[in-house]
Amino acid sequence: MVPVTGELRTSIDLDASPELIWGVLTDVPAYPQWAPVLTGAEGTFADGGRVSFTFPPGNPMLRTTVPARVLQVTPYRRLRFGLRLARLGTPGVLDTEHTMTLTDQDGGVRLWLEIRFSGLLLPLLSRALNRDRAPAFGPVATNLKAQIERVQAARRD
């Protein structure tokens, strides 16, 4: 069987230090402020840390509270985590891998945001994911930039 996959990817250029950006990316409880698809988030991205995200109720095949599998934490460079969205959390049914990568860019930082979808349910849910989740992904970069700028301005005050 050929694995079914999909991907959303975007980037944003930021005039902020990697340390400040990293602080926002690892402030898990603040995720709903800039990720409109989330209604809650808790935990810590760190070695041995646990993170979970809460989504609004939707498709009965999907969980609303989903623990994240922390895959990589490279401070000030890359954060990767995976979610098993299917109701029972079974691997390969509907999984996502989220990657946030910071790269140097013209005196600032370019932040890459990527979500990879895979699993057996993807063909059945792709219409709903595109309608419900993909539009929510669009403003994430803009919202995240605004959040970083708010934190930056608060630190200057």
Characterize the structure shown.
29% of the residues lie in helices and 36% in strands. It has 157 residues and is α+β, with helices and mostly antiparallel strands. It has a seven-stranded antiparallel beta sheet with strand order 1-7-6-5-4-3-2, with helices on one face. A hairpin with a 2-residue loop joins strand 6 and strand 7. The termini are far apart.
- Give average pLDDT, whole number: 87
Radius of gyration: 16 Å
Largest sheet: 7 strands, antiparallel
Number of extended strands:
7
**Anisotropy-based shape:** globular
Structure classification: alpha+beta
Order of helices and strands: EHHEEEEEEHH
Main sheet strand line-up: 1-7-6-5-4-3-2
Beta content comes to 35-45%
Helix content, binned percent: 25-40%
As an assembly, this protein is single chain
Number of helices: 4
The low-confidence parts are none
- Report how far apart the termini are: 57 Å
